[in-house]
Design goal:
Helix 4 runs parallel beside helix 5. The longest helix has 18 residues. The two termini are 33 Å apart. With 296 residues, this protein is α+β, with helices and mostly antiparallel strands. The protein has eight helices and twelve strands.
Length: 296
């Protein structure tokens, strides 16, 4: 696998409503965005024929500060050509097991669908429960869920504050089969198990890894269709507009690379600082960083 280095500054930003990009002004050039992930640039390399690649780099996200968040953090991101999300989960598990080996003997990972995780820990069905039932589930756990939030925002609230902290407590836990509306840059596929009458016809080929209640990694069987990706980006911008968020320019270079042809591949991003915190037994991210935002 080839190690690569991509720019931290970009003329475009991610459209994901859950992520806010930091910006800077360059003399004679204008506004640039600090990359929240090297994903877009690495996909351009894949489209150019790089083959399997990885990168360890600093990334930046605005409005992320707290016990387990810092605006600047270290990410390990890699892509495997000719591999799907199921095979990549095995590789992620092997890496985490190897890195934590000196301090922990991890049991084999659990694989749980997004729907099953919400049913087990929040008592709702991700696909058939009403918005009102999602709000009531949040209230049962002492969380006020604004009725004005769209459905995916309500699900994100339940996953982030109720479900996620309960995952991976006894062994690593992979969450997969995300709703199609949360596919981001993942392709869609049929559910691994036969869908119920009320179940989805397609789910996102996406996974997240949790350990000790922390999300460590987010991976996709990558979408390689340019028109579909542009449509999703525009849908994201519509959500951002409705929420009053910044409307950032799309990455036309990425879309052009997809149009030119990107190979079938799977990719994953893993938060290195959180993994270090788990290895140290730290109870906050700052304890795993030499300089957090509060003492930088």
């Amino acid at each position: 696998m080839l190690e690569v280095e991509t720019p931290i500054l970009s003329g475009a930003a991610v459209s994901d409503p859950q992520i806010e990009s930091l910006t800077t002004q360059l003399a004679g050039i204008g506004r640039k965005f600090l990359c929240p992930s090297p994903e877009y640039a690495m996909k351009r390399l894949l489209a150019a024929g790089s083959g399997d690649i990885y990168q360890i780099c600093k990334v930046f996200r605005d409005a992320e500060r707290g016990r387990w968040h810092n605006p600047e953090f270290t990410m390990i991101e890699w892509y495997r050509v000719g591999v799907d999300d199921a095979a990549l989960m095995d590789e992620v598990e092997s890496l985490v097991r190897a890195l934590l080996g000196p301090t922990r003997n991890l049991a084999p990972a659990e694989h749980l669908s997004y729907s099953a995780a919400l049913q087990r820990h929040a008592g709702v069905d991700a696909f058939s429960s009403s918005d009102q039932e999602l709000q009531e589930a949040a209230l049962r756990h002492g969380i006020v869920c604004d009725a004005e939030l769209d459905r995916d925002a309500k699900l994100d609230l339940l996953m982030g504050l109720i479900v996620g902290p309960r995952l991976g407590r006894e062994r690593p836990c992979f969450i997969c089969d995300y709703p199609a509306s949360q596919a981001a840059l993942a392709r869609l596929r049929p559910p691994r198990s036969a869908p119920r009458t009320s179940g989805p016809a397609a789910v996102a080929a996406r996974f997240e890894l949790y350990l000790d209640g922390l999300e460590l990694a987010n991976g996709f069987h990558e979408l390689v269709a340019s028109k579909e990706q542009r449509s999703r980006f525009n849908q994201d911008l519509g959500v951002r507009r409705a929420r009053g968020q910044v409307q950032a320019p799309l990455d036309e270079n990425l879309l052009a690379a997809l149009e030119a042809g990107m190979p079938d591949c799977a990719g994953v991003a893993l938060g290195f600082d959180r993994l270090v915190a788990i290895a140290l037994g730290a109870d906050r991210l700052a304890d795993a960083m030499a300089f957090s935002i509060d003492n930088a």
